[in-house]
Amino acid sequence: MDNNNTDRDTLPKDNLISEYSELFQAIDVATIALDSANVGIWIIEVESRKFSPSKRTKELFGYYPENEMSFEEALLQITEKHRANVNKAIEISFKKHSYLFIEFPVIGFHDNENRWLSLTGGFNSSNVGNNYFSGIVIDITEQKQNNLRRSKFIGMVSHELKTPLTALNAYIQMLNTWATKQKDSFAIGTMSKVDRQVKKMINMINNLLNLSGAEAGKIHLNKQAFKLNELIKEVIDETLFMTSSHKIHMVPCEMINVVADRDKIDQVLVNLLSNAAKYSEKGTSIQIACALKDNCVELSVIDQGLGIAQQDIDKLFLPHYRVESKETERIPGFGIGLYLCAEIVKKHKGNICVESELGKGSTFKFTLPVNLI
Questions:
Q1: Residue 338 and residue 278 share a domain
Q2: pLDDT tens digits, residue range 218-233?
Q3: Per-residue 3-state assignment (H helix, E strand, C coil) for 237-299
Q4: C-beta separation of 344 from 262 below 8 A
Q5: DSSP code per residue over 308-346
């Protein structure tokens, strides 16, 4: 023992550094950390499309660690309703070298367990350049179950709150009629302010009810034919009535007729306009534009606000997600408005997206199929 220690002590310092360096290189610290956190790792080689999942990744899809699992086999464990969307999202990220974040349910191959998984990935490893598309996958089943329980609770409470508010709204209308007959300007002004606050509360409750329905996959559409331009003007007037701090105007466009759920498209526009106002300086301009493109109409809400960082854009339409920064921490909100907008637009078979840059404002766009009348 002593002789060995003596020999080791007499080794050149550079040899010792090399020995320890090789030892540390042999230990994949990142892999150990991820495994201990029950996070799965996966890699797709660009040219061959070879899929290499870690043991934990296999387990999350219901395979045994010793099993082979191809990319196609992993896809088959995703429920049929979500499979095509997941594959499409991965292919788009793969081809465009863009960031990937997607959630989906799976049924385990061996254990038949129902799980919700969250997949994150991209070309972001400086060690391997752009030859590999890699990422992580985690089990979010408990989080999803908690969200479902919360949604049910919100739905129940919202229904209970809506009943007294409806009665209160009726009493306000009666008092307003009385005040008008009495020509009591003070009472009329007061009732107008109370009515405005009640409408705000009803709108908040409707958003919570819609959230509950969206998370349960139960958004129902009541389609009707209407002129989109008239709806936009109504929404602008309503927004200006609620807040006069911004200049809101509609970019002139041709008269467009659509067949859609008028109330829900109204809700999308109100949400986008109110967000634009919340995240913009007072006195700045907000524009609404619409244009026909092929068989769709594209609506845009353009502001001169704070803007959104690129890393937040992909998560912006997720439920309860809010951009956290010093500028936004004092701005109230539940983080459900944009999620509801996205779900309503998807239900209409349209698309929603945002173009933004920090400090230079944002442009929210959504499309709707057009039925010309």
A1: yes
A2: 677 888 899 998 999 8
A3: HHHHHHCCCCEEEECCCCCCEEEECHHHHHHHHHHHHHHHHHCCCCCCEEEEEEEEECCEEEE
A4: no
A5: --HHHHTTTTSTT----STTTTTS---S-HHHHHHHHHH
The neighbouring-strand residues paired with 292 are 297
Residue 121: the pLDDT is 87
Domain boundary among 188, 215, 242: 215
Q: How many domains does the chain have?
A: 3
Domain boundary among 87, 108, 139: 139
Structure tokens at 359: 């400090």
What CATH number is given to the structural domain containing 286? 3.30.565.10
Query: Structural domain of residue 116, as residue ranges?
Result: 2-139
Tell me, what's the pLDDT at 324? 58
CA 103 to chain centre: 11
Count CB-CB contacts under 10 A for residue 336: 22
Q: Could you tell me if 212 and 158 are in contact, meaning their C-beta atoms sit under 8 angstroms apart?
A: yes
Residues of the chain with pLDDT under 50: 1-13, 15-27, 126-128, 372-373
110/182 same-domain check:
no
Specify whether the CB–CB gap between 341 and 212 falls below 8 A.
Answer: no
The one-character DSSP state at 360 is: S
CA distance 252 to 266: 19
The conformation of residue 328, written as its DSSP 8-state character, comes to: T
- Integer Cα distance of 166 and 162 in angstroms: 6
Specify whether 111 is located in the same domain as 157.
no
Residue 89, token pair as written in the block: 């999202």
